[in-house]
Amino acid sequence: MKTRAELYQFKHGTRTWYFTNQRKVITHAGTEYLPIRGLSRTAIEDESIDKCDTEITLPQMSLLNAEGENLAAVFAGKIFYGGVTVTILELYQNETLVLHKGRVTQPKFDEDADTLTLVCETGESYLNRNILTRKFQSSCPNSIYDRWCGLDFEKMSFEVTVTAINGLTVSFAVVPTQMIDEEGNPIFENGAPIMETKTYSASWLNLGLLMKDGVHTLITSGGGNSLSLYRQHVGLKVGDVVRVAPGCDQSLKTCHEKFNNHIRFAGHPNMPAENPLETQLIK
Asked: Does residue 69 belong to any structural domain of this protein?
C-alpha cells in the first residue's frame, strides 16, 4: 500500500473486529480490515508511563465484524465482562508499525452524536496506576456473579422469550423447563418429559442481569412478566430467547435471605455511621 493507513484490531475473548480508517477494505497478513466511516483517534500520549493512552471514536451502529457481531454490544451494559484489547497499526508500503497496544478502560456513549468513544491505555500504564481495590463499607463491594460473589449465573438464571420491547421496557414469557425430583433428576411420564412454567416474585429480577450472545445488561427493576433495562441492549428483538438472572442490593439481608450466600458477604454492616475519631473523645 502506497498511502499510509491505520488498522485497528479489537479482541474480546475469542471474538475479533478488524477495522480501518480508509474508504476501502484493506487485506493485510491474510486479514480483511473493514472500512469504518468516522473512525478517528486522539493523539497517542507516550511521553511518560503514566500517560500512554488514546481515545478511539467510532459510530455506534455499524461496528460489525465478519460474523455480524456488533462491537458496541460489548459495552452496551452498565458493566462489561472481560477485557477488550486494542492494537493500532500503521500500514505503509506493506510494512506495519505498532502505534498502540493496550486495553479499553472506559466506553463513552454520545447518544446525540451516535458515537462510541473508547478510552484505551497500555498495559504498562494500567499496572502503574494506584487503584482502589477494596472499600471499607457497610454494603457488599462484590458485584453479583463475579468470582468474589461466587454465585453461578448459569444456575441462577432462566430462559425467557421476548414478547415486546417498548423503549427500555422488555416484556417476556418464561420458557417452560423440565421438572426435576428432589435428587435433581429429570421427571418423565410414559417416556415424555414433564414440563413446568415457573413463576417468580415481582422483585426477583431487580438489579439483575439480562444476557444475550455473551453480553450482559443490567436490569434496573422487574415485575410480573416485564423488566426495565439500564440502557438499550444492542440487537435485542422480539422473539429472542435470552437468559435473565436475579439481582442483589448488596445488603446482608438480601445476600442471606435471597441467595443464602452470606458466607461470602464482604461488607461491614455493623460499622458505625459516623467516624468516632471525629465525633467522640477517646480517653
From this structure: yes
